[in-house]
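Structure tokens please, single chain.
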Amino acid sequence: MTSKKQLKARVRARMAKTGESYTTARLHVAGRAEVAADGGWRFSGGRHPSSAAIASVLADQGAAVSEPLVFLAGGGIGAGYILWEFRHDDSRHVVLGFRNQWQYHDRWMAKTLGRLGVPYEEHRTAGVRAAATRLDTELDAGRPCIVLPDRYHLGYWHLPAALDGYGGHPVVAYRRDEDGVYLDDRGRAPIHVPRERFDAARARVSSYRNVLHVLRPDGPPDEATLAAAALDGLRDCVAHLSATSDSFSLPAWRKWARLLVDTRNAKAWPKVFADRRGLAGALLSIWEGAQPVGMDGGNLRDLFADALDEAAALLDRPGLAESAARFREIQGLWHELAEEALPARVPEFARIRELTAAVKESVMADGTAGGPVAAPAAEELWAARAAANDSLAEAGDPGPLFAALSARVSAIYEAERAAIDRLSALTA
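Here you go.
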């Protein structure tokens, strides 16, 4: 028991320090772990919720495709920036989109599965009872389902009530019992959610209420199908990130860089944070969004790089491997931005990072059994976030920090624009 506690402590410490995902941090600390299972379901882990969910279900059904190739088939990386301001709790949140069509779950699922040649059914049921019946039918037949519940209502992330209805990410429902549903959320242990809570979570967000995807593969895609999916995904990525949208394409990073230092735009950071209220929360959301230690998988440039390496072999285009190396460098730029936003040298921020890692590690390593650790860590985390917001409200001029962040975001924009131009030439 002591050895297990020491391992968990070392993994959490590494996650807090580096911003790595649980899987990556554990691999560095303890080496490759044995595959965990719950009955017939084997936990595959994963980095990004959407691509990991598909890869896990395909593996369970004997049609395994690597997560990087699933991610690439869906169009690879994306870009997006939104700063939300909420009056009900005086908070500010930065939303960063890192996956192609990150704002459209159903569209991304459709094109990803279509390119992989995986037959599927999508169900949208307005009523809670009918949605529950549909899910039960699939699970009782041994078919795992990809669902998209609200995180707050799921409960295992132990979020505050202020985040009720903020949405969530895809997870796999793989079996049920009389009391609830068992989920796989990229971890190594089952997450059991009471049925009433689970049904409420699925129905909470109107734009994707009760959405459910059932995959029905005939077998693993052949090499020709995977090669075509990789090429289509690469071309989709290039087209998407070459668009002019400053909300959902690469120009979003350029706009964000400008808003960090602009003094006139109403959504510019010097205006929004003139009173410095909510600044710590915004900085934390940058760190959580860009680093894999957060709930969504991080900036995904390393996952994309792995996909490019696989595509280089599938398509016999060695230049893609060179692009993979460049995107790993860009992953480093995102890491440096996150460190600038929430540096561990600030004691308050260091504690917030430690608590964020503690919650994530407990969920990933122990599932429902990690609740007794995750719940108090989350309670302390949200209290620490509130205290940091109050502390920064009394601090000095944030202008130098905003300028430093702006310079880093600008460098990322230029690096990604050049990398996408190179990919365009390689996929012509």
